Amino acid sequence: MGVFDPLKGFGVTFSTMFKKVVTEQYPEDYRPTAARYHGRHQLNRHPDGLEKCVGCELCAWACPADAIFVEGGDNTEDARFSPGERYGADYQINYLRCIGCGLCIEACPTRSLTMTNFYELADDDRQRLIFTKEDLLAPLLPGMEQPPHAMRLGENEQDYYVNGPELARKAGEVAQ
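^ thats the sequence. predicted structure below, dont judge the formating
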């Protein structure tokens, strides 16, 4: 340790004493983030309101921090949440574990999971930092129906997704 090291530290302090102070009005004025900032996750929807998540659990497998839990469910004719056979019935992200790496985004085959620029994720209650599907789903646009509702696919595709490929092939509507 040098004799002049404390004087170097005081020099840094002394040089900043005469600079102009910059105060950010944080709660009122948000500081813009970079365009590719990884913030809070969002489960996206199709334009008609159906969920894009098909419950494949690839995001949970790709997460190195084991922060994502997905449980898939089967769509029925009465309750349809996504255009395919399955949907994400239970979806949770634990932000106490999430490291914001974005590997879950890259693993998603339907582009249903994205990350927003929202960065206020601090809380004093651990339970509120476990976001459920209702917290993560993108809001419905005005005029959209609440799911479940009719499928957005054509008649041939509806028959394929609702009845399965075997019955659709028997009816001769889907050629493979």
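The chain has a mean pLDDT of 81.
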